[in-house]
Write the structure tokens for this entry.
Amino acid sequence: MRKEQTSIPTSKVQRASKFLKTGAKVGGNYIKHYSKKIFDSELSRDELDADNAEDIYESLSELKGSALKVAQMLSMDKNMLPTAYQDKFTMSQYSAPPLSYPLVVKTFKKYLDKSPDQLFENFTTQAVNAASIGQVHKAELDGKELAVKIQYPGVADSISSDLKMVRPIAARMLSINTSELEQYIGEVESKLIEETDYQLELKRSIEITAECAHLEGLKFPNYYPELSSERILVMDWIDGKHIKEWLETNPSQELRNEIGQSLWDFYDHQIHNLKQVHADPHPGNFLITEDNQLGIIDFGCVKEIPLDFYEQYFQLMHSDVLNPDYDIESLFLELGFLTESDTQKEKDFFVSIFKEMIEMLGRPFRVEHFDFGDDEYFKQIFEIGDRVSKMKEIRNSKSARGNRHGLYVNRTYFGLYNLLNQLQAEIKTGSESLVLS
């Protein structure tokens, strides 16, 4: 656990000052890089990326909140960031600097009118886990072990202003056009506002866990409304190992397949039957218990999927979409991959690129079983993503490509695929909810 923070900048002036200082550091790193490049034309960006990643992460981890959450999200997408950023920002999933205990007590007294010691028989004064929006403490009450999630002060109030300030940094890191960035940031902002509402999370957690209770191999905590508030959430403590730790115990292929199947079925049921989904599939949100069940411990980020978008999106997974006589252009227009103002040359280009991508990403849906341990498959995905991100037609496009609802659905599947690849799992993927050709 990292050194505790005794305060968080909460005013707009304090937070803006921190962002400006970070921007100045990043600018200095670029000056240093290009000064060196004068004497060494072959100099790579590796050192520049490492310096920027260090400076940006240190700043965001002190600010907490939405900016750090965006960093966490970007670290999951291996096509969006250089390796230095991925490695550094991944830390935000587990090891952001936690708040000191006096600040925790202050939060309890503000929202529940009592200190932790007055509510629980035992309460850890140090956080056992600290992430972007809140930290978790372990408590005991009436013979039960509990997980107590406490939101950082000022996070909810600073979302909009933080995201405005993080735009220039994000644009520079991602090298994407303004229209794409605005669509991305706008959807992220709406989800982050929801994610800071622990009463909403409590409601969704209870509803979704009840709807998924029949699925095999999953373990969900019970939730305690009487001990929770809009900034404090209390649930059962689940003992278990994160996926990386569990894999270090060298589990059998059969066990890895079972965990992978439980993970796939969990998402499959939510998306195709509930039309809402746990849209934050990073490793920190899952635990594997001693009896090899998959524990789901966080429903802060849930994406509700509109029916019209759902029907259009999953049409992309049908095999007939790839046939030459399929009217793919109309479907791409509905989904926002194409625009009415595109020239025929632009349409032909984007149709070709997006068909290549959906052929690759939709493969698991077009077969009964899929081996996510096939590293060559993921290598091809990353190569396509890297190639597409460098195309001038993509970078210079005046319109955002895609549907805002697709941002979190795509992110969910990308995270799910990555988790299944970590598990090296081979699973049944043919969805009964999709009529595939």
Summary: DSSP finds 17 helices and twelve strands in the chain. Residues 12-39 form the longest helix (28 residues). The chain has a mean pLDDT of 81.
